[in-house]
Automatic annotation (TrEMBL), chains A, B:
It catalyses: an acyl-CoA + a 1,2-diacyl-sn-glycerol = a triacyl-sn-glycerol + CoA. GO terms for biological process: biological process involved in interaction with host; glycerol metabolic process; response to hypoxia; response to nitric oxide; triglyceride biosynthetic process. This is Diacylglycerol O-acyltransferase. Transmembrane segments: none annotated. It comes from the Bacteria. The lineage of its organism: Bacteria, Bacillati, Actinomycetota, Actinomycetes, Pseudonocardiales. Residues 4-259 form the O-acyltransferase WSD1-like N-terminal domain. Pfam families: WS_DGAT_C, WS_DGAT_cat. Belongs to the long-chain O-acyltransferase family.
């Protein structure tokens, strides 16, 4: 069996859970009573049509070696997978994030299909939340987001939205119980790409060690590039897309450049507060969509690449940071476009593979970090969506962390907002929620700098 | 390093968490406001004097082999260990047990000291709960209960109870950072005894296989004696000690015999409901206190033995079941008293060791179960206790399960009550809470049978 097939299960340890998470905030429909959420859960549980993906479990749950593939769980216990929780007083977003942090830091049970969904009540503003986690071997973050959108509706009057384990289309019949290749179940381009990483890593890693290939820039060592523990912190907040759009238009840069400049400003402020700002600028790994250059060959099928972006965190001036970031992103794209598809893949592979390789002993402590953190901007729903009449107010992605990458910023667009999710190692990244405040400051500074 | 030192960490897998748990129910003191629990938590968190036991973590958290011993956690994060949670609507005991089940089925993080405590608000009757879990390598259930009692007070006016990680007496100074033998930290006689089990098991296991030693009775295969998953169900309820005492006096048997007869009746009803009652009677392993017969020799130091008790679940008549149970317990005691101390130890070792050995592959499927479940009756507080004015209403022990032992009943006395905690494998033992109803019926039947 090729190692790629079970990679996400094999590299998982207690300290490196390999699930992706998402936190959603909903406004209850009008007329919802105090037991609304319990009733919603009961109604949904009555729907026992479960998508094939959510019925699969590893064929050999106990052993850490010899995963033959998937098998179908014949005794699926929806009550276990779909849970009902509540926030303690005073029920602020802060309590919600604390609970999400806890859930995001525990491993999924390999005896069962690798997903959990938590409905959360008790927010003092009357809204409710949903936290879902799915193993990366089933779905990557992009595919998980796409699945979420597929069960929602843009019509607030619709009341027959499928449950999160369901689907709008009936699935084609397929033989049950036959173990399946793990990667055959991994949907989405990022999942397919990352599956190739070990092979690419081997070639690229050798090239790197023998100085035949050099990284396009140097990342400093920071407090984020350390071995991590198993516990997590998660913070989340939304900003109006219009504010980012205005800055982008005024500065003549892309919206993603503005987002990266927000992150750069926030990281700079956070590191100054922690007395840990390095002299050299931080380098972010930014997954980007790549158009395939040729139609033939398997390599060109991968539409996700990775750019390294100079975050200019050493510069105190927000406008200067934005300019450097925008230039760095343009350089990054040019770099890819001048390479052959194989070289592109190798370079992407090297960048991404550093993540895949990090649980190996010694990698973190003996090598320089290829980048300081991953910042992903994932396209989300363009229109306002509803779940059986409940308005979707926010979608906040919670990501996988690995040794040497103790913090991750992933954001998604949601109708008129940009929703940021920040995942950190609980031990290495104290006061993670401060980054939210700094993001807010950074956006205001960018607005001030470009308003002239 | 002897294998006994790190046994509880070495045998732990995702499917066999090796922590003991406890659920406590408290009545709030008069005048407590809506944020009482949050304030209690903040007040307690201000107390950063942490008992040595609760500062230790495994010296090598990542590897599953080569545990050298303990090291002191120099960055203890009390906020991580001591958590604040809430129940969803309608906030019944049922919702509390559901949450406890979930917590009891997840592993402790080995990067940190091996304990977690959850304060729970949102019970609709106004009470609050505490769930604590501690790794068996630190404390066994008996020692954990003793520790809990040591921080409480029998005076409702006392307001300076130490936090659960504290202690009333200042600890003797000891060198920090020096790795310590794991078993040196395991307090309590059961912990010490179980440490001896692997050696005893080897000898006894060989004797058993070679038919030189036979088990005193035959346990049937039941739905409880199967390989288990990692998820748990937990159910708990209290009964007045006076009711059990009355039945014991009327029948001329011990209170523990009545408790065992309650369990026998409940298990019989549960298995009938599940269409899984075996023809042969269930056999319980019952830990008992043993007086050492001789003063010299290390073997006699172990004051905990294990009896096998015939639960007479094949008999429909409650009085007949009680009589058989009482006789079986007397026989069991006689059996021990006729053996040499070494034979006693071996027999206890064989019984207990079957638990320790079960995570080894093949043990469950290839051998007959030596007993069907463990039923422990642990002495608890004799007087009504308070925690900073909050009245302790119940103490419900949540136990360790292992392959072949998918259900466990542990009870403790608490002032005027007997508090039962039932732990089950979530997959193998459906509708575990039904056992509570059946316990209630069984006690009523015993009362009716002995009232004449």
């Amino acid at each position: 069996m090729p190692v790629t097939d079970s990679m996400f299960l094999l590299v998982e340890t207690r300290e490196h859970p390999m699930h992706v998470g998402g936190l959603q905030l909903f406004e209850k429909p009008e007329g919802a009573g105090p037991e609304y959420l319990g009733e919603l859960r009961r109604d949904l549980l009555a729907n026992t049509e479960v998508r094939g993906l959510f019925r699969r479990r590893p064929a050999r749950p106990v052993s850490t070696l010899g995963y033959l593939g998937w098998t179908e769980d014949t005794e699926l216990d929806l009550d276990y997978h779909f849970r009902h929780s509540a926030l303690p007083q005073p029920g602020r977003v802060r309590e919600l994030l604390e609970l999400t942090s806890r859930w995001h830091g525990t491993l999924l049970d390999r005896h069962r299909p690798l997903w959990e969904i938590h409905l959360v009540e008790g927010l003092r503003d009357g809204r409710f939340a949903m936290y879902n986690k799915v193993h990366h071997a089933l779905l990557d973050g992009v595919a998980a987001l796409r699945h979420l959108q597929s069960i929602l509706s843009d019509d607030p009057a619709v009341r027959d939205c499928p449950p999160p384990w369901g689907s709008r289309q009936p699935e084609p019949a397929r033989p049950a119980h036959r173990p399946r290749s793990l990667l055959a179940g991994a949907r989405g381009t990022l999942g397919q790409f990352t599956g190739l990483a070990p092979a690419a890593m081997k070639v690229a890693g050798e090239a790197f060690r023998e100085h035949r290939l050099t990284l396009p820039m140097q990342a400093p060592r920071t407090m984020f590039n350390v071995p991590i523990g198993g516990a997590r912190r998660f913070a989340a907040q939304s900003w109006p897309l219009a504010r980012v759009r205005t800055v982008a238009a005024a500065a003549g840069v892309s919206r993603n450049d503005v987002v990266l400049a927000m992150c750069a400003g926030a990281l700079r402020d956070y590191l100054i507060e922690q007395r840990a700002l390095p002299d050299a600028p931080l380098v972010a790994m930014v997954p980007v969509s790549l158009r395939p250059r040729r139609e033939d060959g398997a390599a060109s099928g991968n539409a996700i690449g990775a750019l390294l972006c100079n975050l200019a965190t050493h510069k105190p001036d927000p406008a200067a940071r934005l300019a450097t970031i925008s230039e760095s992103m343009r350089d990054g794209k040019r770099l890819f476009s001048e390479l052959t598809p194989l070289q592109t893949l190798l370079l992407s592979g090297l960048n991404v593979a550093a993540l895949g390789a990090s649980p190996l002993p010694g990698v973190v402590t003996n090598t320089r970090p290829p980048f300081n953190l991953v910042i992903s901007n994932v396209p989300g729903p363009r229109r306002q969506l509803y779940w059986n009449g409940a308005r979707l107010d926010g979608i906040y992605p919670a990501s996988v962390l690995l040794d040497g990458q103790a913090v991750n910023i992933t954001l998604t667009s949601n109708a008129d907002n940009l929703d940021f999710g920040i995942t950190g190692c609980r031990r290495s990244v104290p006061h993670l929620q401060r980054i939210l405040t700094h993001l807010d400051t950074a956006l205001a500074e960018l607005e001030a700098a470009t308003a002239a």
